[in-house]
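Async update (no meeting this week)

Hi team, since we skipped the sync, here's where things stand on the single-chain job. The sequence we agreed to prioritize is pasted below, unchanged from the tracker. I ran it this morning and attached the output directly underneath so nobody has to dig for it. Comments welcome in thread, and please keep replies under the output.
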Amino acid sequence: MTQDELKTLVGQAALRYVAPGEIVGVGTGSTVNKFIDALAGMKDQIKGAVSSSVASTERLRAIGITVYDSNDVQELSVYIDGADEIDAKGCMIKGGGAALTREKIVAAQSRRFVCIADESKLVDVLGAFALPVEVIPMATQRITRQFAALGGQATVRLKDGKPLVTDNGQHILDVTGLRIADALAFESDVNQWPGVVTVGVFAHQKAAVCLLGTATGVRTLTF
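Output:
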């Protein structure tokens, strides 16, 4: 199966975690787009969604699903989102789609995080995928030096030759060369650096379930 077919497979499998009558948390990215496409088939059974990005909000509204502001919803039963990497404990690297801050906010108000990914995303140790970090622009160079002290190489993510601007009006640093053995401690540490909005390690808001697309079908991992 192609990677696109695997994404479709896990997107459809995630529907079983969506409770009728509920508001569902919806993430961002190409795999989540497959979930949104599948969700169209049961849009009349749910109350609506809380979205983690402008792009997902537009896609949800286009298929007739009401999108609520996160401030208007006290708690979500489930949050469905992808990952750039996930380890055997359910800790993830996220932010390839530049929506990591809003993804972490929606994950934090959800009782359960269901990760949907293809099997290439499962790793022994986080760090092979470049780590996204949303930063306030004036702190970029100092944060770059802090990552260099840890052995990481940080570069500003560009779009059309200019720094990409997130939905929050900030920039993204992509950091390579890291090996994140203790994801929880790493996330706690980097989040305290002045100028860091959000680091793309999801250990405090880790996955409870991962639906992994494989050549033989969907493999369910629980953490």
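Quick observations from my side:
The longest strand covers residues 113-118.
Helices lie at 3-13, 30-39, 54-62, 100-108, 140-149, 183-190.
Reply here if anything looks off.
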